[in-house]
Design a protein that fits this description.
about 140 residues; alpha+beta; Nuclear Transport Factor 2, Chain: A; 6-stranded mixed beta sheet
């Protein structure tokens, strides 16, 4: 079960780094709960795909230095990584985008069932990001 969880999470992040949000959505359960760092919980694949579309317009990101952790029963997982990004288009309520680069540590937590991700939680330091793109 742990191997299935690790494989699913790795596939999810490989799709992220490839800019393939459709492949990310394939890793999710139909009723996935997506907890973003700032904002409301989004439920379902359609809401997750809409979030990915928005993010792709505003940011170009690649994750490096990835470490994936899984629970022995394969129902939970976590990942720690570095976000390497470029701020492409101004996002509402945030500083103006001018192609600024940024690099910050982040993490994600997951719940899994039947080989699908049922919950995604992402954390990063927003104040650090704002400081980097405002410099």
């Amino acid at each position: 079960m742990t191997d299935t969880a690790r494989t699913t999470i790795q596939r999810y992040f490989d799709a992220f780094n490839a800019g393939d949000s459709a492949a990310m959505v394939e890793c999710l359960s139909d009723d996935v709960a997506h907890h973003v760092n700032e904002g409301k919980v989004r439920t379902g694949k359609a809401a997750f795909a809409a979030f990915c579309d928005h993010m792709s317009r505003c940011y170009k990101e690649t994750l490096t230095d990835m470490v994936i952790f899984t629970s022995p029963d394969g129902t939970r997982a976590g990942a720690e990584y570095i976000v390497n990004g470029t701020y492409l288009a101004t996002d509402a309520g945030l500083p103006e985008a001018k192609g600024q680069g940024y690099r910050l540590p982040a993490g994600s937590f997951f719940s899994l069932q039947d080989g699908k991700i049922t919950r995604v939680v992402t954390y990063y330091n927003l104040a650090d990001w704002v400081a980097q793109v405002s410099a």
